[in-house]
Design brief:
Shape: globular
Distance between the termini: 49 Å
Number of domains: 1
Strand content: under 5%
Largest sheet: none
Structural class: mainly alpha
Helix content: 55-70%
Length: 70
């Protein structure tokens, strides 16, 4: 029997405009609300990310972060 989808946690999230647009597009394409799309992505994080490139992408993002905060 599948787990019941209960959205029990709410937390303030800060994201870039590009990230939010991409989340909204993904949610629309999948027929989900934004919160449901985030739940899906994090529940299935290991299977929806490419482990070979995740570390590299994270290092690039962290290197750009100080400039992006200005």
């Amino acid at each position: 029997m599948p787990k019941r989808l209960r959205l029990t946690r709410r937390f303030p999230v800060a994201m870039t405009e590009d990230a939010f647009r991409r989340l909204r597009r993904f949610a629309a394409e999948a027929g989900l609300e934004e919160g449901e799309a985030l739940s899906f992505l994090f529940e299935h994080f290991d299977s929806v990310t490419d482990a070979d490139t995740l570390g590299h992408r994270l290092r690039l993002f962290k290197a750009e972060l100080p400039e992006r905060k200005l």
